[in-house]
Amino acid sequence: MCVGIPAKILQITSGVLPMARVSLNGEELDCQLAYFPEAAVGDYVLIQNGFVMDVLDPQSAADSLAAFAELGVLNIPAEAG
């Protein structure tokens, strides 16, 4: 089973296969935007296996990150919520 983790888009590189640079639990990663090319810088997205799988509203992202932190699965930085 895969678990999607919320991340915030920092930068987008357009092209045939658009990519997003995201902040995920304090680390920066590159992810594919093939399924959600309409995502924008500042959006919260659900990341799974290097792909953006959904665009989240900020409250849903904060709730998910809080749940991960409460379960002790991730160490969430203070600015993430």
Radius of gyration: 12 Å
- Secondary-structure element order, as H and E? EEEEEH
Number of helices: 1
The largest sheet is: 5 strands, antiparallel
Low-confidence stretches: none
Principal-axis shape: elongated
Task: Please identify the structural class as seen in this structure.
Answer: alpha+beta
Q: Calculate the mean pLDDT score and round it.
A: 87
Helix content: 10-25%
Strand % is 35-45%
Distance between the termini: 25 Å
The strand order across the widest sheet is 3-2-1-4-5
Counting DSSP E segments of at least 2 residues, the number of strands comes to 5
Tell me the layout of helices and strands.
Layout: E1 5-13, E2 19-24, E3 27-32, E4 44-48, E5 51-56, H1 58-71
Antiparallel strand pairs: 1-2, 1-4, 2-3, 4-5
Protein described:
This protein is α+β, with helices and mostly antiparallel strands and 81 residues long. It is 17% helix and 40% strand. The protein contains one helix and five strands. A five-stranded antiparallel β-sheet has the order 3-2-1-4-5, covered by helices on one side. The longest helix has 14 residues, at 58-71. The N and C termini lie far apart (25 Å). The model has no long low-confidence stretch (mean pLDDT 87).
